[in-house]
């Protein structure tokens, strides 16, 4: 006899992108791959003197969590967090 268990899928309501400024070298590869154009260069420099990337979280539609920016970053300076309602 096979037993089945009911599972409930929890889908994130939104995603949040965090740029690790101490790692970012401002190469802008992430800007070029973001399908929602949520990343932009800033005028703020990190401790190494690089102009870091900023995430525009106020844009309508927001991050869809595709991970393209995370995958393309050579410095591993991007984190994507799911925001789940409990």
UniProtKB/TrEMBL annotation:
Keywords: 4Fe-4S, Iron, Iron-sulfur, Metal-binding. Pfam families: Fer4_10. The keyword 4Fe-4S applies. Residues 15-44, 51-83 form the 4Fe-4S ferredoxin-type domain. It comes from Desulfofervidus auxilii. The keyword Metal-binding applies. It comes from the Bacteria. GO terms for molecular function: 4 iron, 4 sulfur cluster binding; metal ion binding. This is (Fe-S)-binding protein.
